[in-house]
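About this split. The held-out portion is used to measure sequence recovery: a designer receives only the structure tokens and must propose an amino acid at every position. Recovery is the fraction of positions where the proposal matches the reference. Here is one held-out target exactly as it appears in the evaluation file.
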């Protein structure tokens, strides 16, 4: 009888342990990014959430903090370092304190097209820059993107560089971005992101230098009647993961997580690039006049901004700039 009771007790305990394991709370992965959910970046992290929760059979739950709800860049970095945040996204200018190599993306007219950007972000130059975060307890997983910057304004059609002279244009705090707009004869005016729409609406500034997707999903066509496709500066975002979190994963979960990111990284870029084509087709219906710079005119804009390369050559490194140019040229 004692043996039977002992066996029943063991069976009961095993059943309870199995049930407890089955209903154990999932491990939460918190992800922070600065964009609205409907932007390709937001869709990218939603896809990551869907795939990770599905592929882990509910072992992980992904909570997304979009639109900078987790806080500013410093909050994201600290969150990753202390594993209060497991993943986050940041623009490369913000990452320059970790390595001046990130400033390579701030050079105007470096990239002729999207395939050339992939050569840098996915190649040795981009990944070496990402490795600089390791000493701070952060792993750079790879790059998604915002896209190429174009000139939006509510004053006039800009077809040649002289047309842009004197325009008061919202810029980022990036010194290279400010220097680029100055070299093109414009008046760069740094304004915090949360105040941009109101500044455009109230005509505190004449326009903004920004990509098509961000402009579209933040309703900037409502307050800008002209856009000139310049494709001046390319804006990538590095997706980061807490080293503490990554180290806590089993080899199987680690592989699943990293493989899933690589998949959604390409998905996000595809959304950005296809989205630009769709937006271009719809701008006229929004009352926006679209001008595309000719190759000859774009070359003049590029020539005018050559001074920016000289200004930042010492920080970025002449060798790195030449390596990037050679990599792009070889990939053509």
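Reference sequence for scoring:
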């Amino acid at each position: 009888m004692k043996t039977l009771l002992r066996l029943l007790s063991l069976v009961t305990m095993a059943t309870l342990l199995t049930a407890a394991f089955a209903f154990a709370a999932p491990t939460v992965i918190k992800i922070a990014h600065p964009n609205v959910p409907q932007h390709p970046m937001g869709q990218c992290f939603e896809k990551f959430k869907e795939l990770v929760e599905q592929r882990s059979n509910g072992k992980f739950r992904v909570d997304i903090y979009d639109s900078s709800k987790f806080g500013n860049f410093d909050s994201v970095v600290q969150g990753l370092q202390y594993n209060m945040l497991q993943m986050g996204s940041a623009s490369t200018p913000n990452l320059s304190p970790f390595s001046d190599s990130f400033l390579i993306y701030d050079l105007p007219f470096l990239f002729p097209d999207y395939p050339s950007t992939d050569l840098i972000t996915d190649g040795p130059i981009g990944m070496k820059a990402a490795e600089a975060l390791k000493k701070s307890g952060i792993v750079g997983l790879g790059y998604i993107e915002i896209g190429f910057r174009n000139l939006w304004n509510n004053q006039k059609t800009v077809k040649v560089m002289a047309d842009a002279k004197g325009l008061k244009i919202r810029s980022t705090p990036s010194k290279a971005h400010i220097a680029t707009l100055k070299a093109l004869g414009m008046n760069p005016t740094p304004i915090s992101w949360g105040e941009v729409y109101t500044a455009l609406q109230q005509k505190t500034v004449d326009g903004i230098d920004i990509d098509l997707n961000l402009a579209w999903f933040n309703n900037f066509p409502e307050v800008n009647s002209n856009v000139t496709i310049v494709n001046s500066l390319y804006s990538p975002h590095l997706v980061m993961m807490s080293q503490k979190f990554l180290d806590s994963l089993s080899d199987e979960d680690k592989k699943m997580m990293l493989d899933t990111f690589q998949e959604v990284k390409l998905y996000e870029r595809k959304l950005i690039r296809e989205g630009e084509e769709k937006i271009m087709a719809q701008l006229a219906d929004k009352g926006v006049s679209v001008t595309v710079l000719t190759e000859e005119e774009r070359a003049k804009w590029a020539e005018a901004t050559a001074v920016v390369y000289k200004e930042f050559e010492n920080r970025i490194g002449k060798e790195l700039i030449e390596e990037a140019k050679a990599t792009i040229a070889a990939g053509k």
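Annotator remark: The chain has a mean pLDDT of 93.
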